[in-house]
Amino acid sequence: MNRRPDREFPTHDAAKRLIATSRVAYFLRKVDGVVCARAWFGWAAQGPPGHAHGGSIATVLDETMGVAVLHSGYVAVLASLTVQYREKVPLGTDTVVKAEVCRTERRKIYTRAVMRCHEDGRLFAEAEGLYVMQNLEQLCEMKDLPASLQKPAET
Questions:
Q1: Which of 8, 39, 67, 92 is the most buried (most CB within 10 A)?
Q2: Confidence (pTM)
Q3: 120 part of the active site
């Protein structure tokens, strides 16, 4: 039986904005090569009332691990992301993310990241990522490839 719902399901504003965060900045810790990020989640990243959406948190963890992969000299795409949410992130909280490449195995790159409260060190989330190395031909098949990665035109 096809039945229309009694009322329309409301679409969350954050979903319309692609689960955007308000501010993120990336840094490289030269001592050990760990990539760090400072992230602050604003109202556009809201999930549960007053707290960041899990998708926003996962996005920042993925991006930070991706920067660690790139800094390590690899060009890769994410194949698998596992996030363990340990505590809700209140909107407006300054967070620190640390990400690193743990090991490589042929074309596979294994990464890890943690997100903590900048003020008191509380653990908000942990992630593990599996990235797969890409060659230039695979990259060229993707749309909107940055000019620095495009194949030179044949003459």
A1: 39
A2: 0.77
A3: no
